[in-house]
Design brief:
6-stranded mixed β-sheet, Protein-Tyrosine Phosphatase, Chain A, UDP-N-acetylmuramoyl-L-alanine:D-glutamate ligase, alpha/beta, single chain, about 450 residues, 2 domains
Length: about 450
C-alpha cells in the first residue's frame, strides 16, 4: 500500500518518537521487496540538493569512504578505533543498525544523542519541505550524519556505503582515501548477478587523485576495479600485492587462537599486530584498515604504532562473532551472503571449541539463497529456519527448508519466529554444543535485543 503524501510544511519534531515516526514515513529501500536500481531511485542529484539546502555539511568534513560486499563494517570499525586512539575525534557512519537506530551515527564510540537526532531531523524536515524533495530513509540518515559530524567539528569521518557505491548517497563526499573490501555475490537482484557487475558498482566510489585500495581477490574482480580506478583518474593498490602485507595464525595463553598481521610501506611499519576480530577474513580487513591509516599518515595525520595497537585492541563490533550467552553458548553473526557464511564457519572452527553446531538461520529473498544454504549445510549439524518479523523481504522458513532439503541431508526444522527458534535450539544442544544465529542483520539484531533483555531480567531477579 503506498504511503500517504506528506504535508509540504515541515512537521514539528518535539521528541525522539516524533523523529522516528517522521523518518519511517519515507521510503526505505532496505525493507522493500523490489527496488529499481537507477539514478532516479538512487539520485545523487537529490542528495546534493538536500545537502545544499543544509549548508553543504559534507564539504566541511574530511572522510574515509569504504565500499564492498563483506568486511565493510569490520574495516570501518577498526579504522575508526585506530584513529580515535591516535587522538582524533572520529565520526563513524555505518549500516544497518542492530537494535537502536542511533547506532548508525556515532562519534568516538558514542551514539548520537536523542536530542541531537531531533534537532538534526528537524533541520532535514525543513530542508525537505523547502526544496520539495521526496527523500528516502537512507538519504535522511546520511544527511543526518553529515550535519551532526559538521556541527560537532570532528577531525575525520569513516563512511560505510549502504548499497553498492556508485549511486550510494554517501558518494557525494570528497574523501581522502577510498577502499573496497572483499566482493562477492550479494543484492544480486539490484547490483547484478555477476561479481564483475557488482565490483563495477562498488568501484564507483573511486575519485580522481584520491588513493584507492583493496584486498587481494579474484583476478576478474581486480581487473574491474583497476579499470574503474583508471577511468576515475587514480591508481588502485592491493594490500598483499602492491602493499607489503602478511598474516599468520597463532595461539597463546593471553589471547588464545588469533591472527597477527604485518604491513610495511615507505611511511609505516606495523609488525605482528593482533587482529581484534576473529577469522582469517578479518586479517585481510585489518590489513585494509592499516592501509587506510598509512594513506592518511602520508597526508599529514599523526600516527604511532603504540596508539594503533591500542586502537585495534579497543575495536568493538556487535553482531560479528559475538558471544551473547554462555549456557547454552550463543553466538551472533551478521553473515548475510555465501562468502560471509563460509567465513563464519571457518572462524568458528579455528577459534571456538564445540561438539555440535545448531544454526538459527533466516535471510532475505534478494540474497544468494542457494549459496548461503550450501555453506549452512556444510557447517551446521542442525538448522532451524525462521524469519525476522522486522524484515518485509524475509524469506519464509518453509521455503528455506524446502530448498535446503534439495541439497542437504542435514537435520532441519522451521520456527515461526526467533523466540520459538531459540527455544527449539536450546532443547537441541548439550553443554559442549553451540547455537549460532546468522543469515540476516535483522535477525541478529532481534537476537541481540532478546538476549540483552533476558540478561536484564535475570539480573533483576537476582
Amino acid at each position: 500500500m503506498p504511503k500517504a503524501p506528506r504535508s509540504p510544511r515541515a512537521p514539528k519534531i518535539a521528541n525522539y518518537h516524533d523523529a522516528k515516526a517522521w523518518l519511517y514515513e519515507h521510503i526505505d529501500h532496505e525493507r522493500q521487496r523490489v527496488v529499481s536500481y537507477n539514478d532516479k531511485t538512487f539520485s545523487l542529484n537529490r542528495m546534493r540538493k538536500l545537502l545544499d539546502a543544509l549548508g553543504n555539511p559534507h564539504e566541511q568534513i574530511k572522510a574515509v569512504h569504504v565500499a564492498g560486499t563483506k568486511g565493510k563494517g569490520s574495516t570501518c570499525a577498526m579504522t575508526a578505533s585506530m584513529l580515535r586512539a591516535c587522538g582524533y575525534t572520529v565520526g563513524l557512519y555505518s549500516s544497518p543498525h542492530l537494535v537502536d537506530l542511533r547506532e548508525r551515527i556515532s562519534i568516538d564510540g558514542h551514539m548520537i544523542s536523542y536530542p541531537a537526532v531531533c534537532d538534526v531531523f528537524q533541520q532535514i524536515a525543513k530542508a525537505e519541505a523547502k526544496t520539495g524533495l521526496d527523500l528516502t530513509f537512507f538519504e535522511i540518515m546520511t544527511a543526518a550524519a553529515f550535519v551532526h559530524f559538521a556541527e560537532q567539528a570532528i577531525d575525520i569521518a569513516v563512511l560505510e556505503t549502504g548499497l553498492g557505491g556508485r549511486l550510494d548517497c554517501t558518494n557525494v563526499c570528497d574523501p581522502l582515501v577510498t577502499a573496497v573490501t572483499s566482493i562477492s555475490l550479494d543484492h544480486t537482484q539490484i547490483l547484478g548477478d555477476t561479481v564483475e557487475q557488482i565490483a563495477k558498482e562498488k568501484a564507483g566510489i573511486f575519485k580522481a587523485g584520491v588513493p584507492a585500495i583493496t584486498v587481494e581477490q579474484d583476478t576478474a574482480i581486480i581487473n574491474v576495479l583497476k579499470e574503474a580506478a583508471e577511468e576515475a583518474g587514480t591508481a588502485l593498490e592491493i594490500s598483499g600485492k602492491d602493499i607489503d602485507f602478511s598474516y599468520r595464525f597463532e595461539a597463546n595463553r593471553e589471547l588464545g587462537p588469533h591472527t597477527r598481521v604485518c604491513l610495511t610501506t615507505p611511511h609505516s611499519r606495523f609488525e605482528h599486530l593482533a587482529v581484534p576480530l576473529k577469522g582469517e577474513h578479518q586479517a585481510h580487513n585489518c590489513g585494509l584498515a592499516l592501509s587506510i591509516i598509512d594513506k592518511l599518515r602520508s597526508q599529514g595525520f599523526t600516527v604511532s604504532e603504540d596508539r594503533v595497537i591500542a586502537g585495534l585492541d579497543e575495536t568493538e563490533l556487535p553482531g560479528r562473532m559475538e558471544e551473547v550467552w554462555q549456557a547454552p553458548r550463543v553466538v551472533l553473526d551478521g553473515a548475510h551472503n555465501a562468502a560471509s557464511v563460509e567465513a563464519l564457519i571457518k572462524s568458528l572452527g579455528a577459534h571456538v571449541s564445540y561438539d555440535s553446531l545448531v544454526m538459527v538461520f533466516g535471510c532475505g529473498q534478494d540474497k544468494d539463497v542457494a549459496g548461503m544454504l550450501k555453506q549452512v549445510g556444510l557447517g551446521a549439524d542442525k538448522v532451524i529456519f525462521t524469519k525476522s518479523h522486522s524484515n518485509p523481504r524475509a524469506m519464509e522458513p518453509e521455503d528455506l527448508i524446502k530448498r535446503f532439503a534439495e541439497s542437504s541431508g542435514k537435520m532441519a526444522q522451521t520456527a515461526r519466529n526467533l523466540e520459538e527458534a531459540l527455544g527449539l535450539a536450546a532443547r537441541a544442544v548439550s553443554r559442549e554444543d553451540m547455537i549460532v544465529v546468522a543469515g540476516s542483520f535483522y535477525l541478529v539484531g532481534e537476537a541481540r535485543d532478546y538476549f540483552q533483555k533476558l540478561a536484564t531480567k535475570r539480573k533483576g531477579n537476582n
